[in-house]
Amino acid sequence: NDERTFIAIKPDGVARGLVGEIISRFQRKGYTLVGLKQVVPSKDLAESHYEEHKERPFFSGLVSFITSGPVVAMVWEGKGSIAMARAMIGATNPLASAPGTIRGDFGVDVGRNIIHGSDSADSAKREIALWFKSCELLTEVVRS
Ligand code: CMP
């Protein structure tokens, strides 16, 4: 019930006015927003976040894109949130994402795919710690 995942609306998603739509989808699904901020990520933060892709040909383009403007970083909590958020987001390539998913409904370009979600429990833990201080996240005490 207290599973947490890290979700980031990328600069294209923010610029296209999709923040409200995306937050609304996670709220309607039944998840709880326990952390939220808008930041222009530093190069350091972006490189750490995408560390696993650092040997890929698209890495430098990915880092310059993600640091090019405001990102809305969020932590969502609830039963099965890591896998369910990935399902709600859709496949990495928006053209391969089913209609009904966020990327399937709103995107066409793999390099501008609107949103990121943690792919595992380990990634969620790492990414939440990278983007948020613990005092920026709600605790059970605050929520109840
Ligand atoms: P994300 O889920 O944030 O995780 C890694 C990101 O790398 C991915 O979304 C895409 O935005 C990006 N990516 C993956 N493959 C490519 C590609 N072939 N070209 C450009 N960007 C890519």
UniProtKB/TrEMBL annotation:
<feature type="binding site">
    <location>
        <position position="10"/>
    </location>
    <ligand>
        <name>ATP</name>
    </ligand>
</feature>
<dbReference type="GO" id="GO:0006183">
    <property type="term" value="P:GTP biosynthetic process"/>
</dbReference>
<feature type="binding site">
    <location>
        <position position="92"/>
    </location>
    <ligand>
        <name>ATP</name>
    </ligand>
</feature>
<dbReference type="InterPro" id="IPR036850">
    <property type="entry name" value="NDK-like_dom_sf"/>
</dbReference>
<comment type="similarity">
    <text>Belongs to the NDK family.</text>
</comment>
<dbReference type="InterPro" id="IPR001564">
    <property type="entry name" value="Nucleoside_diP_kinase"/>
</dbReference>
<keyword id="KW-0808">Transferase</keyword>
<protein>
    <recommendedName>
        <fullName>nucleoside-diphosphate kinase</fullName>
        <ecNumber>2.7.4.6</ecNumber>
    </recommendedName>
</protein>
<feature type="domain" description="Nucleoside diphosphate kinase-like">
    <location>
        <begin position="2"/>
        <end position="139"/>
    </location>
</feature>
<feature type="binding site">
    <location>
        <position position="58"/>
    </location>
    <ligand>
        <name>ATP</name>
    </ligand>
</feature>
<feature type="binding site">
    <location>
        <position position="86"/>
    </location>
    <ligand>
        <name>ATP</name>
    </ligand>
</feature>
<keyword id="KW-0418">Kinase</keyword>
<dbReference type="Pfam" id="PF00334">
    <property type="entry name" value="NDK"/>
</dbReference>
<feature type="active site" description="Pros-phosphohistidine intermediate">
    <location>
        <position position="116"/>
    </location>
</feature>
<dbReference type="GO" id="GO:0006228">
    <property type="term" value="P:UTP biosynthetic process"/>
</dbReference>
<dbReference type="GO" id="GO:0004550">
    <property type="term" value="F:nucleoside diphosphate kinase activity"/>
</dbReference>
<dbReference type="InterPro" id="IPR034907">
    <property type="entry name" value="NDK-like_dom"/>
</dbReference>
<dbReference type="GO" id="GO:0006241">
    <property type="term" value="P:CTP biosynthetic process"/>
</dbReference>
<feature type="binding site">
    <location>
        <position position="113"/>
    </location>
    <ligand>
        <name>ATP</name>
    </ligand>
</feature>
<feature type="binding site">
    <location>
        <position position="103"/>
    </location>
    <ligand>
        <name>ATP</name>
    </ligand>
</feature>
